[in-house]
Amino acid sequence: MDVFYKSKMSIFYEMEDTQLILGDSFKILTKMKPESVDMIFADPPYFLSNDGFTCQGGKMVSVNKGSWDKFSENGTSIEEKHKFNRKWIRLCRIVLKPNSTIWISGTLHNIYSIGMALEQEGFKIINNITWQKTNPPPNLACRCFTHSTETILWAKKNEKKARHVFNYHKMKEMNNGRQMKDVWTGALTKMSEKTEGKHPTQKPEYLLEKIVLASTEEGQIILDPFCGSGTTGVEAVRFGRKFVGIDVNEEYLEISRKDWRRQQMADRDFDKWLSKFRTSISGYDYYIDFDKVVRNVEEIKVELNILNSLIGSRNIEEDFQRIVSRYPETLQCIPLLLAVRGYKIYAQDEEGTFLYNFKKMNYNVEQYKVFMHKTGLFDMIANHLVNNLVDYALGIETGLDSNGRKNRGGHQMEDLVEKYILAAGFRKDVNYFKEMYLKDIEEKWNIDLSALSNQGKAAKRFDFVIRTDKMILNYSRSSLMEPRC
Fold it and tell me: Are residues 268 and 297 in the same domain?
């Protein structure tokens, strides 16, 4: 995503072309760069929370939406409502590009204030869309006509040079070859669009589909300053637009995040997705850690130079015995010459089994000469197959370090996975944790994982443990995600 903000912004959730921001829209809008957005869809508070009742699913329920739908427990005055609408519309105008447009949805409770506020803040209304609901809630009071419509105002900046986008032919195509009128008929939001959670004023996806396709092009940026459960974002991403959503309620943003992930998986083009895979995750430091290689050789460089006197020796066994007797510390170099880490080497032959200690001699010199002869080190050194044991040791260390690529690759994969975990909205040591053993998981969440640990016999460790409301996900480089309820 491009940078839209004047200063550093805390992002609640982010994908490639989408951002969710938790916070007050008034504050967030002031931090956005002027003329950075191509289209705005807003479904602001209706201010209809008045302790009344409506019908939902055949049951009588309260019309109160939440604290965000009223200024105080005493309700919202006309003056407060209009001041609120003018303020957020004014801020939206600043971030809109010159040829951009804004769509605002509302009911009789707020739409007339919004219409006036638009004109007062320098907008010109293009269309007054009537959304006619085919299955509105029934009228419980029976003292007025059933409320079955909502209004969506579409406006542009009231400037002579403003040239807004209207995809006329696309709208005509969607309307079976006829001009699309300003009355859109359809049902309320389907339950299948609320699988991740509900928002009291959630709009159906077909409504936002028309709005997105009518007034934007692919790659353009759509902003929703009251994004709720994120339907605008779902449709923006579906049709190749970029999206920024703002909401003050974390619960609704979490619904948005889950909806986006669901939509992303449903719409995924496997070949396109596969083409984005990297050939490798290797960085420059993946191949050889030369600092470590040189450091290890430097620690025994003096001893290696002493052993260099054996190169080309015609009586190597006697020369070796003389060096070891005078400089026993030179023995510690021998394991490295055989590409072995540590100071102990096991060997066996017809004479028996031996465990040689090259840090502290545990056999006589004669036995160490046997070792040097049978491993081929005497032949290599005496026959001048190497010119310098320091250089030879550097080569051995380089080879040994290349074996560490598995661990380095593992750490690089951990770093990569962690970026996605953070991008998914999880927070370290809050709802995701690093490097936990099974016993740690059992103690922290009081769950029985003995089936995974072979009744406690295996001490399995996971690189990441993610805690959600319904399950715990364990990830390690050697296993897939393992959900545990």
Answer: no
Q: Note whether 388 and 430 are same-domain residues.
A: no
Domain span at residue 468 reads: 412-484
Q: Is residue 282 part of a domain?
A: no
DSSP conformation letters of 393-412:
HHHHHHHHHHTTHHHHHHHH
- Tell me which H or E stretch contains 129: strand 123-133
Closest CA to 386 of 373, 376, 401: 376
pLDDT digits (tens, 9 = 90+) for 198-248: 666 789 999 999 999 999 999 999 999 998 888 898 899 889 999 999 999
> Is 52 a domain residue?
yes
Could you give the count of Cα atoms lying within 13 Å of 231 in the half-sphere of its Cβ?
Answer: 24
- Say if residue 54 is in the same domain as residue 25: yes
CA angle 99, 149, 96 (to 5 degrees): 15
pLDDT in tens, 12-42: 888 778 899 999 999 999 999 999 999 999 9
Closest among 85, 162, 77 to 116, alpha carbons compared: 85
Residue 473 tokens, joined: 């996900």
List CB contacts of 174: < 8 A, sequence separation 6 or more.
180, 210, 213
Does 238 lie in the same domain as 120? yes
Report the distance separating Cα 435 and Cα 438, nearest Å: 10
pLDDT digits (tens, 9 = 90+) for 394-436: 999 998 888 777 666 667 778 778 888 888 788 888 888 888 8
Q: At 141, list the tokens.
A: 């009071």
Residue range 151-173, pLDDT digits in tens: 999 999 999 889 999 999 999 99
